[in-house]
Design goal:
6-stranded mixed β-sheet, two-stranded antiparallel ribbon, 10 strands, 27% helix, alpha/beta
Length: 232
């Protein structure tokens, strides 16, 4: 079995929802939902909360996931990328001669995952041997990229996919998906080369009933509504 680092990124500088990672959602702080999901996985070897914030670090320790480091401030800016955060965590462990085959990135801002969903994703990642696996949701047909347009150099519209003619019927459209943010899994070797996705991307569909990606107070209200409909 491969070794997998479960990485939960949780910086302190949230603007849309101040201190959202430790804000109570229902009966527990937002970050605890994702920590609990990671702890329930039978495949994740090590769970790490990567944070620059002392309050979040203390909260993570209370919920059974003491951060082994405080993330440098330079990696906790609005411009900081998830790839940089993951690379930092990998380097931290490799400096201690601890190596992982893959990283499972679990964003606390997408707190609701069906029971066993992480392990189903990891199993598919292993089976496909893809460089990366992402959780996705279907794109509604009216937003399908084959029905989307871009402006060309003459100020006219062209089909975004580069096709010459539009697919006329909804039933003929190929399936299209968008990332929902719940799970990203990538081979460590790919990440160290400077990419989270590599050359082959597998996917797993999430349950749309669970979907929320919390960035604003409106998103937070949606999460509270979801909690009244599902049980966590």
């Amino acid at each position: 079995m491969i070794s997998i680092l479960g990485l939960i990124p949780a910086r302190g500088g949230s603007k849309g929802v101040p201190k959202k990672n430790i804000k109570l959602l229902g009966k527990k702080p937002l970050i605890e939902y994702t920590i609990d999901d990671a702890k329930n996985s039978k495949y994740i070897t090590e769970i790490v909360v990567s944070t620059d914030d002392d309050e979040i670090a203390i909260a993570a320790e209370i919920y059974g996931c003491k951060p082994p480091f405080i993330r440098p401030a330079a990696l906790a800016q609005d411009s900081s990328t998830s790839l940089e955060v993951v690379q930092h965590a990998i380097a931290f462990f490799e400096n201690q001669n601890i190596f992982f085959d893959a990283v499972c990135l679990l964003q606390p801002t997408t707190p609701f995952r069906e029971k066993g969903f992480i392990d189903k994703a990891i199993e598919k990642f292993i089976t496909t041997n893809a460089d990366c696996l992402v959780s996705v949701l279907p794109i509604p047909h009216e937003y399908n990229p084959h029905w989307a347009f871009e402006e060309n150099e003459n100020g006219l519209l062209k089909i975004a996919t580069g096709e010459e003619t539009i697919i006329p019927r909804r039933q003929e459209l190929p399936k299209a998906f968008h990332r929902d943010g719940a799970i990203y899994i990538s081979k460590t070797a790919v990440i160290k080369k400077g990419s989270f996705y590599g050359k082959s991307i597998a996917y797993i569909e999430s349950n749309p009933q669970y979907y929320v990606n919390i960035d604003t107070l409106k998103d937070w209200e949606k999460a509270e509504k979801i909690l009244t409909q599902i049980h966590f």
